[in-house]
Amino acid sequence: MASTLFSRAFLAASRRLITPSLLPETTLNLAAFLSKRSFFSQLGASSTWARRAMASSGVGGKAGYATSSVPTNEPVVSVDWLHSNLREPDLKVLDASWYMPEEQRNSIQEYQVAHVPGALFFDLDGISDRSTSLPHMLPSEEAFGAGCSALGIENKNGVVVYDAKGIYSAARVWWMFRAFGHNKVWVLDGGLPRWRASGYDVESSASGDAILKASAASESIEKIYQGQTVSPITFQTKFQPHLVWSLDQVKKNMEDPTYQHIDARSKARFDGTAPEPRKGIRSGHIPGSKCVPFPQLLDSSQTLLPAEEVKKRFEQEEISLDKPIMASCGTGVTACILAMGLHRLGKTDVPVYDGSWTEWATEPDLPREGAESSS
Question: Is 329 a catalytic residue?
Fold first, then answer.
């Protein structure tokens, strides 16, 4: 497989650090600003906002790593927090970069060129359900546990996930860990671009160990689906069914709405005026769903908007935050960004339709709405 070929090619490569040039910034780096103790001291120790901001940015309190300093209702950590805690042994960093086929980018090769020092590569397509033709579907409990164990992840670990776009595929992996009962997981706000723009080092020519682990994780998944035993298992899972919706659940909700259905795809794809990126899939949308394109929740530097701004985005689309919400997209990736935004608002139980539009649109008897679907 590809990962094995890469491991052989780079086994002899030495590890080195590249210090990137600082990129010009036209706006104030708020995350960096808020991480300064002097700023918080000016606010006063009695400021509730100051205490919360200190906690979420990883400053204040005891020195060193402590996931307790990052609230579990906060889905992201800043690049400054990660830089301060990067070498802590109980923290695992995962590069979960992934691209659509038409982008013609190779996430493993890009990982080899530049990644956060010490980060492991999480193969979104490799750690997936092998019993379906749908792309990167959620694997079984046993398979996910085997894959994470092969990567060296344990239940005691805090996990920070990032990707090379800012906030994109990392959100999917954040949701996957939560779907299997691991809540000590966060997305790196702004991802690798933000990390590099902040002047932090990246690592190139990863050790063969990192690539071998990625390959072993994919092979472990394959063995599970073939009925073979995989050991040792260091990561125990506890499936959270309320976070994962099936086609039948979406169909039932369409017929008898109890959850508001939001779709993270672009308005053009949702309306059926632009083609789907995957061949053979007609554009359009599931009846009753509303379009909330995922980029609306991100700022220009691809970081998650503040809670008040996120709230406005949903309210603009007439989504009630007082009622249940479920999310979908094309293949269950960017729907997780909507789930992250709602998580920031305290709605921590938003399910994602795993198969999303790709599954729905390939079922000939299911209703569809939109220009292309009605043609």
Answer: yes
